[in-house]
Amino acid sequence: METPPPEPGLDTEAGLRAAYGAHGAEIYRYALRQLGDDGGAQEVVQEVFLRAWRRGGSYDPSLASLRVWLFAIARNVVIDEIRRLTVRPWRRELTDEPESGKDSIGPADDALVDSWLVEEALRRLRPEHRHAIVEAYLRGRPYAEIAAEAGVPVGTVRSRVFYGLKALRLAMDEMGVEP
Questions:
Q1: Boundaries of each RNA polymerase sigma-70 region domain copy (predicted)?
Q2: Alpha-carbon distance 34 to 54, whole Å?
Q3: Which residue of 35, 60, 94, 120 shows the fewest CB atoms closer than 10 Å?
Q4: pTM of the model
């Protein structure tokens, strides 16, 4: 598998412009679907790229793609915005934009971003841990069945799931995903 060419650092103007050009519109559409508010979506995009610029030195392409990293930030910013609007519901009433009639949270969009984040985090696990977690949690198979297929004791599968989940939590923390 080929590694992508190195991208310019996000702490440079050229790097930030390139990241915005490649992912800004998609992040805007995601925020708009989540919030149902054009102004709020624009604020989210600005905040995402401001945070990316501030933390540009901490971005590690070996841990996550730029797109996944930016969407992790966007997800956190959208959650912050929804919380802020929930605390101050009168802010929405002051906007000139008519309500779109949508819920403020788009579950399909949120689930899509969550699945990208989980997929990226699973890639960082050791193969035996990843296999145990995928089979037990995502496919819902019993430990005994997984153990028989792998030719290991059930206790080994339990151990792999336990330590795999710990490693998964660590990987998600490294990616900046908040619980």
A1: 20-85, 121-169
A2: 24
A3: 94
A4: 0.52
**Distances in whole angstroms, Cα of residue 55 to Cα of each of 11, 16, 40, 70, 169:** 8, 11, 22, 11, 21
- Do 34 and 81 sit in the same domain of this protein? yes
Q: How far, in Å, are 19, 38, 126 from residue 100 at the CA level? A: 29, 10, 45
For residue 153, give the amino acid letter.
P
Same domain, 95 and 29: yes
CB hemisphere CA count around 33 (13 angstroms): 15
- Distance (Å) of CA 47 to CA 90, 93, 112, 174: 22, 22, 21, 20
Say if residues 19 and 49 touch (Cβ distance below 8 Å): yes
100 and 134, same domain (yes or no):
no
Compute the distance between CA of residue 162 and CA of residue 166 in angstroms, rounded to an integer: 7
Q: Which residue has the tokens 């339990």?
A: 158
Tens digit of pLDDT per residue, the chain (179 long)?
455 544 556 777 888 888 899 999 999 999 988 888 888 899 999 999 988 888 887 788 887 888 888 988 998 898 888 877 776 554 445 444 544 444 444 555 677 777 778 888 888 899 999 999 989 988 889 999 999 999 999 999 999 999 999 998 888 887 777 76
Residue that the structure tokens 């925020």 belong to: 31
In total, how many domains does the chain have?
2
